[in-house]
Model the fold of this input.
Amino acid sequence: METKLRARVAVAGAGAIGSAVALTLARAQFDVTLFDPAPPGDNASGVAAGMLAPVAEAVFDPVSTPHLALLRRARDLWPAFVEGLDLPILRDGLRVEGEAAWLATIAARFEALDAPFQRLDGALVDAEDWRIEARPALAVLKTAFEALGGRFEPRAFAAGDLPAFDAVVLATGAGDAAGLTPELAALAPIKGQILRADRGPATGPVIRGEGVYIAAGESPAIGATMEMGRGDLIVDPSATEALRAAAIRLRPELAQAVLTTEVGVRASTPDGLPLVGWSATPGVMLAVGARRNGWLLAPLVAGLVAAYLKGDNPGPDAASLDAKRFSRT
Ligand SMILES: Cc1cc2nc3c(=O)[nH]c(=O)nc-3n(C[C@H](O)[C@H](O)[C@H](O)COP(=O)(O)OP(=O)(O)OC[C@H]3O[C@@H](n4cnc5c(N)ncnc54)[C@H](O)[C@@H]3O)c2cc1C
Done:
């Protein structure tokens, strides 16, 4: 794209990625319109636990294991990204609890990654992982975007909107982006169900046990299922029963909790990293496919999108996230 000041950019999708992109572009003086037909927070980003957790992801999600350095760089962008926003970063870290034999396998994974951890009262403790409150964060990002003059359109972006803009950034998550680009064929849905409890730890580290995590808060989050290939939002108690049982083993008081189920669909590429950059379709840029790490990666993805639009050097992570890496013949 020919770069010019005040280029008109559409951002399709107001999840974590689209909201971060829209705010970053507005901060960089682009003329930005953000589109989303869904009610605020009615997406994967709204149901997410909000963990900014490079270490836990590398340890517990084998697809993310090779990406620890990149995930750490993404986390390190957060303090500057939230500067001036009412969006606190919770830095209580991670606590892994469980049977000795299982803990030994987890400790071995920390060691293999050279990730620092401590043993404390029979648990493994890591201070590196952070968290935010996801749903409130979406509202904060949108407010900040609009305060900079950004416009929000409560409808879907469609191919017919393209001529009105110099570029569109597709941040449509697992949504159907109306056949706008061939690269989206690399994405597969992963349904995630997460429980919200009416009691449990209000503050403190994310607690991980075998097959479950508990993220503290006003309504602690107990997550999350990984249902490969499923893109529906149907609540299925048979899929969450194992989560509930595992959470109660960690914190027995949760047996009395009233639990509400929320469902989101993550979009994933084969290597677990998002597609970021220009599509083969002229004027279309991709910012999709962040798998389990859409919040963690949001500022990094937004920075890359801004660099591409400005014609700047996109930096060391551009090649790993190249939007066309699965569609080159
Ligand atoms: C249960 C669960 C827990 C999770 N926990 C974490 C976590 O702790 N930390 C973390 O980093 N990640 C977590 N994730 C992953 C994270 O939620 C996703 O990676 C992230 O939400 C992806 O953000 P996104 O903006 O790409 O997509 P989404 O949040 O899905 O947003 C996409 C938006 O695009 C809109 N849209 C679709 N089509 C169009 C169109 N044509 N025009 C305009 N808008 C359109 C949709 O309405 C939607 O609002 C979790 C996910 C789940 C399901």
User: Anything to note?
Assistant: The chain has a mean pLDDT of 95. The first strand starts at residue 8 and ends at 12.
